[in-house]
Specification:
The protein has about 325 residues and is an alpha/beta fold. The chain folds into 2 domains: about 120 residues, 3-Layer(aba) Sandwich (Rossmann fold), CATH 3.40.50.720; about 180 residues, Rossmann fold (3-Layer(aba) Sandwich), CATH 3.40.50.720. The chain is about 35% helix and about 15% strand. The strands form 2 sheets. It has a 7-stranded parallel beta sheet with strand order 8-7-6-9-10-11-12, with helices on both faces. Strand 10, helix 11 and strand 11 form a beta-alpha-beta unit. Helix 1 packs parallel to helix 12 and helix 5 crosses helix 7. The longest helix is centred in the C-terminal third of the chain and has 19 residues. The two termini are about 30 Å apart.
């Protein structure tokens, strides 16, 4: 029986029991190696003879792949694969897989929690009461949520679920996704518009697009200038989708009213990051995807991708399928 080496480059959990169990019960002879390495230089000596990689945030560059002589598959803990050079993987015949149905429920719920917290000024009022005050609550009168507009940027699995849940709260949903037709938008029950139109009309602009060359700094000075001064930005996608310097300027100049951010351009942020000093921003530490259930599913499904590939089959979600010439 062939012997395989699978390397987990980095991870957030205290152990890798679910992954190990999937590999152990696969019927394959698999050696599992756990690292805690994220830079290419740290990975070079560890992955040369790996048959498969399981990756969280480690940067898998062309240089890393050129040193891997046996690798068949790279499986990512999550949906986004912006830390992996997809073209280099295709050039080396390596399948890159993700878990496309991960955290749909969690991130969509987190998004609507942000909408409600922003709309009702929850954190401002909490701080007001905790500061020993009661009357004359700050923030002004909230706008009635029903009838307001949420603009969903990116109608993948999560964006679609955000749209569905938002409609149940009485919000009008606009969406921008250059890869969907108007007919598809209609089938999903949302109005597809251009990005500029969405920005002009939305009371809440919610980002759900992957980080690619096209979407890096998709929201910057020009885009903030189109938004209402009463509008809020919500980012649960990737930090670099937003130009953070432009966001700071928009928040401090009154160009937009506030923001809710689960992701930042630099994570964790530097202690002197100017955004942290603002009182019109809600932060969460990149955990919109996190529940016990989602974590368990993610870890098992990420390992299953590797098992399927090592068996010589095609995993269910290969993100560089076109580059590999697969139909």
């Amino acid at each position: 029986m062939a012997h395989y080496k699978v390397v987990i480059t980095d991870f957030g959990a205290a152990d890798n029991v679910p992954e190990a169990e999937v590999l152990r019960t696969s019927g394959l002879d698999v050696e599992l190696v756990r690292l805690n390495a994220r830079t290419p230089e740290e990975l070079f000596p560890q992955v040369a003879d790996a048959d498969g990689l399981i990756v969280q945030w480690a940067r898998i560059t062309r240089d890393v792949m050129e040193r891997m002589t046996r690798c068949k598959v790279i499986s990512r803990y999550g949906i986004g694969v912006d830390m992996i050079d997809l073209q280099a993987a295709a050039d080396h015949g390596i399948m890159v897989c993700n878990v496309p149905d991960y955290c749909i429920e969690e991130v969509s719920t987190h998004t609507l929690a942000f909408v409600l917290a922003l709309n009702r000024h929850l954190l401002i009022h909490h701080a007001h009461v905790m500061g020993g005050r009661w009357a004359d609550a700050p923030g002004g009168a909230p706008a009635r949520l029903a009838g307001q507009v949420i603009g969903v940027v990116g109608l993948g699995n999560i964006g679609r679920e955000v749209a569905r849940k938002a409609k149940s709260l009485g919000l009008k949903v606009l969406a921008y996704d250059p890869y969907l037709s108007a007919q598809m938008g209609s089938a999903l029950g949302v109005e597809l518009v251009g990005l500029d139109d969405l920005l002009r009309q939305a009371d809440y602009v919610s980002l759900h697009c992957p980080l690619t060359d096209e979407t890096r700094h998709l929201i910057g000075d020009a885009q903030f200038s189109l938004m209402k001064p009463t509008a809020y930005l919500i980012n649960v996608a990737r930090g670099p989708v937003v130009d953070q310097a432009a966001l700071f300027q928009a928040l401090t100049s009154g160009q937009i009213k506030g923001a809710a951010l689960d992701v930042l351009e630099q994570e964790p942020p530097l202690p002197d990051d100017p955004l942290l000093a603002l009182d019109n921003v809600i932060f969460t530490p990149h955990l919109a995807s996190w529940t016990g259930e989602s974590s368990e599913q993610l870890r098992r499904d990420t390992a299953r991708n590797v098992v399927v590939a090592l068996r010589g089959q095609l995993p269910r979600s290969i993100v560089n399928r076109k580059g590999l010439g697969l139909s």
